[in-house]
Amino acid sequence: MQLGVVIGSVWSTRKEEGLVGMKLMLVKPVNVLDEQAASLPFIAVDTIGAGIGETVIVVTGSSARAALMKPQAPMDAAIVGIVDDKEVDQRYR
How far is residue 12's CA from residue 52's CA, in Å, rounded to a whole number? Predict the structure, then answer.
């Protein structure tokens, strides 16, 4: 799992059948210690109704497909939680 911030939405009228009806969001991964971007943004299927600006929990690979109970779906990332708050021990900052 990793943390990210939803920075946008992605629309696609033509897509593989396994993605039909799925909400696609653009997520920027963040470093939990300093809130800076950890890598380039990526597209994730939204399973819970996240919105732009929210910090989310993202799973990738087979865990993403399992979250939607669609083992054959062509996806590699899924938003599975919205973060309410977090706390990091100051020794690790």
Answer: 18
pLDDT single digits (tens) 52-75: 999 999 999 888 888 877 777 788
CA angle, corner 31, sides to 28 and 32, nearest 5? Answer: 115
pLDDT tens digits, one per residue of 19-40:
888 899 999 999 877 666 668 8
Give the phi and the psi of residue 41 in degrees, each rounded to 5. -60, 155
Query: What DSSP element (H or E) covers 92?
Result: none
Question: Which CATH number does the domain 2-11+19-85 belong to among 3.40.50.300, 2.60.40.10, 2.40.50.220, 1.10.3720.10?
Answer: 2.40.50.220
pTM to 2 decimals? 0.85
Residue ranges covered by each domain of the chain: 2-11+19-85
End-to-end CA distance of the chain: 20
